[in-house]
Write a structure and sequence with these properties.
By secondary structure, the chain is α/β, with parallel strands linked by helices. The protein has one domain: Vaccinia Virus protein VP39 (Rossmann fold, 3-Layer(aba) Sandwich). Strands 3-2-1-4-5-7-6 form a seven-stranded mixed β-sheet. Helix 4 links the parallel strand 1 and strand 2. The protein binds S-adenosylmethionine. The site of S-adenosylmethionine (SAM) has 19 residues, from loops.
Length: 278
């Protein structure tokens, strides 16, 4: 991983830990989709790559139960220790933790019944290498399932903020294929990579759901402006007055997505699943 993006994630880690309970609720439908598409069942051993402060690992640990286990990995040590703290808090003893980078997984071939990755693949410096490695450590017939964002313009969770910040900070369009949240936003792109990495029966589906949590627009802005390294960097270049203006304009632009002061954004995520050939 390039060291600047690594340090961005390291700087983000305390905020991801702080907002982990909200993030877990917000993306529970994505976790459920991964569990379903990867065919995760009680008693299985599952690998989570780029698990951040613990999801989907910890929810999957509940799904596989005490006879199964989950290995939660992330490139950033602070993310992994936040995940460990959350597992202890929830009394989960069937989760192991390992700091490691996607593409350099320190596990033997065929170690897991399934491997999952929620909102991680788009940030890997070499996604093809990461997919090949996820397939390597999965047993023959086991599934590799990944969740990535569909296009930003279909996700008000993203565009309500970027449309405001782009008026304050010049934002050049992302280079095609460069690491970033919307790198795999076009249907078919990640599925093709997974197929090229050697997966069989590759399928892709569009998950439409609502990102919901009992938070106010101000709490939403606090979470987004803290957890996103890109956003933090943009805000650093603004004056204190401009930052207040951005916060006010975001609060205005998200209002319709907070009926009764509770967040509910319609969202679209792509779920890609393939099997390790037998
Ligand atoms: C958007 S967060 C997703 C975290 C979590 N899976 C979730 O859905 O809440 C992306 C995560 O990818 C991790 N990451 C970025 N590059 C990585 C790499 N090359 N290998 C492993 N993890 C990486 C970051 O440290 C961060 O925790």
């Amino acid at each position: 991983m390039q060291s600047d993006s690594m340090s961005e994630w390291r700087d983000s880690a305390p905020y991801w830990g702080k907002h982990a309970p909200t993030i877990r609720v917000m993306f529970a439908p994505v976790t459920r989709a991964l569990i379903e598409d990867a065919g995760v069942r009680e008693g299985q051993t599952v690998l989570d790559v780029a698990g951040g402060p613990g999801e989907p690992s910890l929810t999957i640990a509940e799904a596989v139960g005490p006879s199964g286990s989950v290995t939660c990995t992330d490139a950033v040590a602070e993310m992994v220790s936040a995940a460990g703290g959350e597992a202890r808090r929830r009394g989960l003893s069937n989760v192991r933790f390992r700091r490691c980078e996607a593409g350099r997984l320190p596990f033997d071939a065929d170690s897991f019944d399934a491997a999952v990755c929620r909102f991680g693949a788009m940030f890997f410096p070499d996604p093809s290498e990461a997919l090949r490695d996820m397939l390597r450590v999965t047993r023959p017939g086991g599934a590799v399932s990944l969740a990535v964002w569909h296009r930003s313009d279909l996700n008000p969770y993203s565009y309500t903020i970027s449309r405001v910040t782009s008026r304050f900070v010049e934002t050049p369009p992302a280079e095609p294929g460069a690491p970033g949240a919307f790198r795999f936003a076009e249907p078919g792109v990640l599925a093709r990579l997974l197929e090229e990495a050697g997966a069989a029966d590759v399928r892709e589906r569009l998950l439409k759901f609502h990102i919901e949590a009992p938070i106010t627009p101000a709490e939403f802005w606090a979470m987004r402006s803290e957890t996103s390294g890109t956003l933090r960097e943009k805000l650093t270049g603004l004056s204190a007055e401009e930052r207040v203006e951005v916060a006010q304009e975001v609060a205005e632009s998200v209002r319709e997505f907070f009926p009764n002061d509770r967040m509910s954004f319609p969202a679209q995520v792509i779920i890609v699943t393939g099997k390790k050939p037998i």
